[in-house]
Known about the structure:
Uridine Diphospho-n-acetylenolpyruvylglucosamine Reductase, domain 1; three-stranded parallel sheet; 17 strands; globular; binds flavin-adenine dinucleotide
Amino acid sequence: MRNLTTFRIGGRPLFYCRPCGYRELECARERCRRHGLPFRILGGGSNLLVDDGCLPFAVIHLCSPGFDWIERTGPTTLRAGGGVRLGELLGYCLGAGLGGLEFLAGIPGTLGGALAGNAGAWGSSIGERVLRTWSLGEANRVEEIPAERVAFAYRTSALGGRIVTEAELALEPRSPELIGGLMRRNLRQKAGRHPVGTPSAGCVFKNPPAAPAGKLLERCGMKGKRVGDAQVSRLHANFICNLAEARAQDVLLLMEMMREAVRGRFGIELEPELKHWESRRTVA
Ligand SMILES: Cc1cc2nc3c(=O)[nH]c(=O)nc-3n(C[C@H](O)[C@H](O)[C@H](O)COP(=O)(O)OP(=O)(O)OC[C@H]3O[C@@H](n4cnc5c(N)ncnc54)[C@H](O)[C@@H]3O)c2cc1C
């Protein structure tokens, strides 16, 4: 998983596969069921902290070539596979003159991962653009779920436990010049504020209603704090960077220190934004 996550941390799952389409995806899930093996869905691995060592679950990786297609469905709508990279999606929108997703510029990962966590920035999130999604449901049926049943909220959605295979998005006609300009501006702002060149999993904690988590952590003096090779970014206190050989345990310890500092000083409980895949055995 070290090679499949932006944090560059994580051990080896018992089973790994990259299905080329629905049939192979169904087979992979059936196989896991037969062997009583729990499974996790992997997209771009950009919001994950994965434990080291042997991982007692299967990883089903939704990416190319089976789930990375984009198709125009109307003058301002498009449908895309859950494994499409957000960068690829933005490139398509730029070329097609479809605006509305520029806020995603600089966010790594796939469409499926973005939908599961309702990814967003600058006050917008992807759920606002969703018309419907498709996931592989029970009995291997592909289920269509309209946006109003997805319950998109701040960095969460009801799609979390599902296998999101496709989505249809509603966009706006916009000139490629304007789209490109907005994307460049967002990228520039992100590059100035986030440690984009160093391995991380993005923001560690969600922003509590009172204030951005980064500001609270900064006021607690957390910038630069380090456990092993895991370090709170000096640029943004809500990022943990992997300086070289950080272990999941280093990150977890540092996260606990961060939570404790904010709890002690402000009485606020920080909630993790990144997802933790534990090596502790769980029931299938
Ligand atoms: C430098 C950097 C900057 C970032 N900036 C932002 C930001 O501004 N805003 C923001 O919201 N996030 C940000 N992130 C976090 C991350 O990029 C997003 O959360 C992204 O949407 C995760 O998508 P992914 O495909 O990488 O998901 P993964 O990390 O692979 O998975 C995350 C979760 O989604 C689930 N999942 C993945 N694919 C599917 C699927 N097809 N169906 C069902 N569940 C699925 C996984 O099981 C897991 O629980 C940043 C990350 C980095 C490294």
